[in-house]
Structure formats: C-alpha cells, structure tokens
Amino acid sequence: MDFPKGPSFFYGLFLTFLLYSNAIEAGQNYKDALAKSILFFQGQRSGRLPLSQSQNLRWRSISGLADGSLAHVNLVGGYYDAGDNVKFNFPMAYTTTMLSWSALENSKPLGPQLENLRVAIRWATDYLIKCATATPGVLYVGVGDPNVDHKCWERPEDMDTVRTVYSVSRTKPGSDVAAETAAALAAASLVFRKVDPIYSKLLLRTAKSVFQFAAQYRGSYSDSLGSAVCPFYCSYSGYKDELLWGAAWLLRATKDASYRSFIDSLGAHDSTDIFSWDNKLAGARVLLSRWSLVENDKSYDSYKQEAQDFMCRILPNSPYSTTQYTKGGLMFKLPDNNLQYVTSITNLLTTYAKYMKSAKSTFNCGNILVTPNTLINLARKQASFLTLVDYILGDNPMKMSYMVGYGTNYPRRIHHRGSSLPSITIHPQSFGCEGSFQQFYYTSNPNPNILVGAIVGGPNNNDFFADERTDYSHSEPATYNNAAIVGPLAYLSGR
Q1: Which end is more exposed in the chain, N or C (fewer Cβ atoms within 10 Å of the end residue's Cβ)?
Q2: Among 353, 226, 355, 236, CA closest to 290
Q3: Tens-digit pLDDT profile for residues 152-187
C-alpha cells in the first residue's frame, strides 16, 4: 500500500495524535533509554561473564565456554544474536559496526555511557579478532547449529546442543561476512584509538587482513554455508554492499587512497530505501557523504547525492517517498522485526542531519526543502507527528514502550530463552532441550527475568502488538535492533 499524502490522511493522523497527546506532553527520557539500550547487551553475552559489579543483569551467567573446541580453536565470547543461543557473526559484526559508529558520532552526548558503550563494543571485537586470527586463511563466522538450537527452549547456561563451528575460506568464500567483520574492526579501531592505541592497532591490522580476504576471494557466505545461515541470516542483497561498507570504514580509519579507488571501482550505485544487517548501501553512502559535507571534499559529492536520494525515499512528505507509515506514525518496512529497520534508518537520519548541520547544508526532494531539522523531526517529537524514536519509547496508539524495562507499560512475554526461564541461581538444575516448552514457552505468564533495554520486533502495520512469546516476528529482541538506536538516543539526549 502506498503512503497516502492527501489532507484527509493528515487530519486523521492529527486525531490519532490527540488520542495520546497526554503521553506525548510528558516527553521521553532519552538519557534513561540510552543507558538501558546499552545495558541490554549484558543479557546477550556469551562466554565467561565478568565480576558481579560489572554484570548488572545478574540472571545471566557463564555459557559457551567450549565454543570453538570442535574446530580446535578458542571462539569463546561474543553475543547471542537474539532470543536463541546461536552466535551468528554476520549480524554480530553489523551490530559492532553500528555501536562503534554511534560512539564516534556522539562521544560528547554519550557522557558517562561512552565507557559502557566501549565495553559493549569490546565484548564483540575480542571475539571477532579470535574468529579472524585463530587459523590462517580461515574466518570463523558462527558457533552453534541453528537448526538444532531452534528446536530447543533452554537457557544459554544449559546448552547441550551441538556447538558446530562454521567458517569461510579461499575455497569456500564469504565476502559479505568478511567485509562486515572488517568494517566492525575498522570502526572499532577508531573508537579505541586514543584510549587504547595498542588494541586499536590490533583491530585495524586485523581489519585490513580480513578485508583483503573478502575482496580477493569473492563469493557469498550464503552459497558457501547454505542451511547453516539460511534462512536465518542469508545475504539476500549479495556482497557488493558489504565490500562498499567495509572499504568505506577502512578509508575512514586509514585515509589510504587505495580504499577510495576500490570504492569507485565497485560501481555500487543501486537505489535503495532500506538499511539493515543485510543491506549496507545506504549506510555506506551516508558514511562517505561525510567527506563531502564535513571535510568539504567535492569528489565525494556523488555519494552525498545518493545519500540524499535515500532520504527522499524515506521522508513521508517527499514526492519520491517509497516508505509506508502506519496511522500511528511508525515507519513500516517489513512485517518481521520491523523495528530493526526503524532503528537503523533513524540512525542514518540523525547522523546525516549532523553532517548537514556541520556544512550548513540543505537539499530538495522535488519542491520540498529538507533541512537538518526535517530529518531530526522525523526521529523525535517536534513539529512532525511522525516520530520514530518517541513512538518506540511509548508515544504510540497502544501507549506501550517497545523497549523492555523503559516506562511502566512494555512487553512482558518477549521471545527470549534466558529471559523466559528462571535463572540458574534460582533453579540450578537444567530444564533440558524440550522440557521447558510447555511450562515457560507456551505460558501466558510474564518472563521472570527482565531483559532491560531490549528493543523487540514491534507492532504490526495496524499499530497493534500482542505481546505473545510465540509471536517471534514481533516479540523477539535482537542485538542489531539495539545497536542502531544507541546513536539516535545519544544524539537526542544531547539536544
């Protein structure tokens, strides 16, 4: 359904707005939401958790200490991607890149949360370095058989499913996952450049090596690994977008002109109206536009134009908009885990607005003038009723926060194993692979453990959210949902 642009629609939207204006008037506490959005990552940790004073989500404990042993390597650590117990490196690397980008663009407004964000980033990069350096010529890209894991409902601490190790190599390439890993390591190297220069150099050195592998031995990891990653995290968009994204981050981290030459040689100029763990084109263009807007390098103007074309496809009043919005004002891209697209695109809105402000720049979508505030107003409550961050935090028809633990009305039955089962401190005995389905999966009782800060998949296209554990496409949180909202929350908390 095309987004209606007539006056009757906006009148209807105004009436919807009035229905929950009292909630809006109170405003959102962006600093509180920011802190919780980062705290969430403690609930996704795999490996040996730190001492209690730095592990605030106490219901989580040690897990996955033998990860990598089937391949005779150490792959302990990293994050579980969502509500399951699998470590998928493709979305994990994207998560890491987005967290690092948020840290780089918002170091001042992050305030005391900057150190917590660095900790969250390093939990991922320590693991990704292991994956990239454990065996010459091999990049490990995941741990845990997803097809077996998804038949179980058990805590990560109790995992008894096979921890199969997956990898790509010269004969079994994975340019997409390798280039995204390179992007994550390169971006993180900038985050740690001043505070830990030795670690920063290790990150950058590893990023260069992994990217060279991605560029030299081209192929999709979906083709190489098949059912181990599909349909869970297939590389639907191919690998050219990751090569562009990875090269752009290495260019920013090194200022090496060879990466610019590589970028120009790719010819990655397809139009897009989405940004996610799978499709990085829009993100790469916003990143590259920084040279045009902030550095005033006109040779990057074509990437700035492509970034603007993307914005014109997102803005609801643009004549070129290809983006639907619900009656309640939520951007709606796809039915499954729609909020991942909302948070990722909102990150681009606030980042590009920041670049525009630096350059005192505007642009046009047809006859519509777009200023930095045009993009910010879509991200937060101001002149526009179509507000994305505020919608997620509770300014919506259901008056529900889609961030767990934020506000008083939030999802209580999220699709998440560790959250839905009693913690190991309360119930030390294992529930087994299938023993807890009836008691803890199908029950209507709320989850016993609150995964504070988790952004769930969100409501449907009618602004309705059922809060049912079995409805994973709407009730499951994911690391990439959260990683993308950290930047917008930091930006808005500093305004």
Answers
A1: N
A2: 355
A3: 999 999 999 999 999 999 999 999 999 999 999 999
